[in-house]
Structure of Peptidyl-prolyl cis-trans isomerase:
Amino acid sequence: MVSSDQRRRQLAREKYARQQQRRAEAQRRARRTTVIASSVAVVLAAGLAVWASVALTGDDSGSDTVAAQPSETPSAAPTEEKQPEPAMSIDRKATYAMALKTNVGDITITMDAAKAPHTVNSFKHLADKKYFDGTKCHRLTTSGIFVLQCGDPKGDGTGGPGYSIPDENLNGLGKAGQAGTVTYPKGTVAMANAGPNTGGSQFFLVYKDTQLPPNYTPFGTFDADGLKAVEEVAKAGVEGGAGDGAPQKKVTIEKAAVTKK
């Protein structure tokens, strides 16, 4: 049985989707005299998985790559006219906190608007609209890279807000080494993507130092209590005993809120 609280969250997400659709229709009407290209670019939804659409190095040598599970990799789909990212409304000089209330414990993410203003602004915009409420963290990796991925309203790695944000702070973790990777330290929060400048709403929490190419916007860190909660999820493993897939211990973001510190 669906609770009234769950129903309220679902209605909020559906309302947001309708608002995005109406905005798209208004933009198309305003440009009805514009010649539209005959072909539509085919792109992967941002954040199919942390590594689903680009190879991510799984070890220091860079010779071993980790790919999404073949049987669960969503196929690419044509993308309608994308919405513009939200208008900038945050204080670029400030620090913001994103509080995630989850069924496995509270996770507080500290976000630096000076280093990643577009990313922080987007999370503030989405959290204010209750976009993340009731969503699940759909992917866990326990081999090669060590992350828990969240932020998809569909819960399968294919969802997003209908707009993209640019990559930011890619040099924030240092210069890539000989293997072409940098260390994403445990406690780091970064954006999933499907290529350059395709960030949406999906993000990943690093629970153990992980080597990755510097292609994923590191926009914050999460607290010790949150790290402990994610480590417990990782300890329970992936469904079916694999090293990559849905976490055995289900994680649901019950409520998300972004505030200025």
About this structure: The mean pLDDT is 80. DSSP finds three helices and 16 strands in the chain. The longest strand covers residues 252-260. The chain has one domain: 4-69+79-260.
